[in-house]
Amino acid sequence: MKILIIGANGFIGSHCVDFFESKGDEVWKADVRVSSETHNQYKIARFNSDFSKPFKEHKFDVCINASGSAHVGFSFENPSKDFELNVVNVQKILVAIRDYNIDCKFINFSSAAVYGNPKSLPINENSICKPLSPYGFHKLQSELLLTEYHNFFGLKTCSLRVFSAYGPRLKKQLFWDLYKKSVENEVVLLFGTGTETRDFIYIDDLLQILNLVILNSSFKGSIYNVANQIETKIKEAAEVFVTSFLPGKKIIFNNEIKVGDPNHWLADMQLLKEYGFKPKFNLNSGITKYTTWLKELK
């Protein structure tokens, strides 16, 4: 396959590059930052981005958009910029595909943030979406764009609602926060009560899902949850991390709920199971690989 990965230098994007190159696919990269190598890459402007050039010059089988903002807090601080990164840029990519590469399959990384606080668990793809943040609303709008461009222009589109993905190269969210605080303090202070729950997925399992979607999805504005179908308390996840990274550190919670954060998440993964998805990593094995990487940073 010939694949274009937009946001190729980010956490998920860089792993996508490695994964598909290891399979022998022809991988092209696009990002606001580029390496000194000029081979198979495009530089995208940070502002007023134009995504036309790659699709004018090549015919891709698949385009994966791993770019955009993935920070709930930033979406409150700068909702206009978050909208540009997560909605406007997606629309620009869709227009470029429609105009120059209409047979290209387009996969956009959405987020479980579209669900907000669900009324019941597990959450399936038909659950009501009530986002708690501008970020969640913008990801939902991007999904609607993918549906629009499939229905009206025939594009092959698919949205992946990623829950709590983690692994080497991740430098944000819970486990990165734990890393920074545990290195600098004897007592690690976290938001919330610790009883909030998440559905964590290790990056290698996310890549397995991505590959299964490419091989099996109808790409008719399709939507899939990307998770492990295991509900874990934040307190338990934090303890697993500290035990693996710096045993003996004390974790306390401030009982303050951060704006935009949901209470409980657990994904229904039936659609992906029908494609053959079987997680290869549990939280313990995934955290071990992540903390091994963190220790190499020191």
UniProtKB/TrEMBL annotation:
Residues 3-227 form the NAD-dependent epimerase/dehydratase domain. Gene3D superfamilies: NAD(P)-binding Rossmann-like Domain. SUPFAM superfamilies: NAD(P)-binding Rossmann-fold domains. InterPro entries: Epimerase_deHydtase (IPR001509), NAD(P)-bd_dom_sf (IPR036291). It holds the Pfam family Epimerase. Belongs to the NAD(P)-dependent epimerase/dehydratase family. PANTHER family: DTDP-D-GLUCOSE 4,6-DEHYDRATASE-RELATED. This is NAD-dependent epimerase/dehydratase domain-containing protein. It comes from Polaribacter butkevichii. The lineage of its organism: Bacteria, Pseudomonadati, Bacteroidota, Flavobacteriia, Flavobacteriales.
